[in-house]
Model the fold of this input.
Amino acid sequence: MTTALPGPDSRSHPLSRTSAACPDPPLLAIVSEHGPRIARFSIDGKWLDDMQVPAPLSDPAAQRSVKDGPEALAIHPDLGLLTMPEEPLAAEVRTTHTIYAANGDTLAFDTTDIGTTSIEGLEVFSDGCMAMIEHDVSATDGSLIPFLRVLDPANRGADPMCATELARIRMPGIMDADFDGITQISEDLILIVSHDKIDSGRCSVFGLLRITPASAGQHGTSG
Done:
């Protein structure tokens, strides 16, 4: 969806809204594939300024396709602003997703075990762990298969590749939903929301996922 929001110069600025995060002090940061850029707004919707996306994401020609630019944005207490493209850059391995931090750091993870997934949403938990919504496409009927992935950056070694925990998202009665919104609402609950086309009908689905301890120092997921 593309909208026009007012800037300080009174001009309307088109912005394709793909993801948002709220840093401190209270502002709204929105990543857009147009540019690409990260636009900052006041909480009453006034455009303040544009920020540069991480250098590897700044060239649209480096994207895997025109629709696979920056997709997800979140704030981490140590790493700062985190940005992820929908699919790995064209020069990267298709099954390796990368999180780009504002401080120049990167974290990566492999999806070979489930396929060539696309990133739809990113959230940072209160303990600093990161959660991603991603989906694969069913080879039989083309429906979307959603997953929740949790990454703890504290467990990363010298290699940018990180171990993750993964759970398939299953909603009773919902066979094809494009979940792309995620936020933590309590220590063990996260809220997810889908686009407005579900099983070929016009509606959105909100779901609650509970995060449970799989073992000491780790996260588990249950829908």
